[in-house]
Design a protein that fits this description.
Order of helices and strands: EEHHEHHEEHH
CATH class: Mainly Alpha
Distance between the termini: 49 Å
Strand order of the largest sheet: 3-5-4
CATH architecture: Orthogonal Bundle
Length: about 110
């Protein structure tokens, strides 16, 4: 006897994912997104501060990953234009803060095996 089941898909920010884990990894997966989020756990950072904390990431990659995290409503970008030079700050949104336990668990696992 064959039982037919309907696969539930997950939609977030206009993108469809086949499962909840796929959605999560779609938002925070990749080499740099989790690192960016890890550095933002303790508060707001300027672009140049992030660059110094992540010396091996290229400027283009950092900019693209920050843009994707902002599009997914995980981080918030604030631009100060009152006086030069241009100042840009990033911080976790309330939704982004819900990822803190996951990011901390990833960091703890990395600590435990190194």
């Amino acid at each position: 006897m064959m039982v037919e089941t309907l696969q539930k898909t997950y939609t977030y920010n206009g993108k469809e994912y086949p499962c909840c884990a796929s959605l999560t990894m779609g938002v925070i997966g990749g080499k740099w997104k989790t690192v960016i989020l890890y550095h933002l756990i303790n508060g707001t950072l300027r672009y140049n501060e992030l660059r110094k904390l992540m010396p091996t990431v290229t400027e283009r990659t950092l900019s693209l990953q920050l843009k994707k995290l902002e599009e997914d409503k995980i981080i918030e970008r604030k631009v100060y234009t009152k006086k030069p030079p241009l100042k840009v700050e990033y911080k976790l949104t309330p939704l982004g803060k819900t990822l803190v336990p996951i990011i901390e668990s990833i960091a703890e696992w990395g600590n435990s095996v190194s």
